[in-house]
Amino acid sequence: MSVADDMTEQAKLSTDGPMQPAPRSDYAAGACNIGPAEIAARRRFGHLGLAVTVAFAAFVLAIDAPLWLRLVVFFPAAGAATGYLQTALHFCAGFALRGVYNFGRLGQIAAVEGDAARAADRRRAAEVFGLSVLVGVVAAGLLALL
Question: What pLDDT digit, counting tens, does each position of 43-98 carry?
């Protein structure tokens, strides 16, 4: 298969548009798979998740909501943690699971090459998701105690 055929095949597999070579690549397996535009998007997601977490917590405390409703805070808190962790690590867990990275414009992804690199990315993604779940559990536990 030629390089052109391979790029055409990769473009067919992408759900975010065609995969293109990144204009610059600071990709490091299991350590860094996103650049400034993607980092900013994850930071915005973290801010949104934090705002929803705080607003929801204030609401359930104001109405003295039952325990089951207070535990729902897990979801926005875990989401906020995911956004902030990905920002701090310069690493997108979702991209890692898909085997892609991006250091260009939003949506301009490139395929990660090599099984070892993809495995390292999946391990880091599991860490990000695990820590996010932990933050969500702690937030829900604290709100349940209030």
Answer: 999 999 999 999 999 999 999 999 999 999 999 999 999 999 999 999 999 999 99
Angle between helices 74-89 and 115-145 (to 10 degrees): 140
Domain span at residue 55 reads: 30-145
Q: For residue 103, what is the DSSP state?
A: S
What's the token pair of residue 75? 């979801």
Q: Is 9 helix (H, G, I), strand (E, B) or coil?
A: helix
Q: What domain count does the chain have? A: 1
Flag whether 10 is in a domain.
no
Tokens of 62: 């104001």
Tokens of 12: 């067919």
Q: What is the largest CA-CA distance in the chain?
A: 64
**For residues 23-43, average pLDDT:** 91
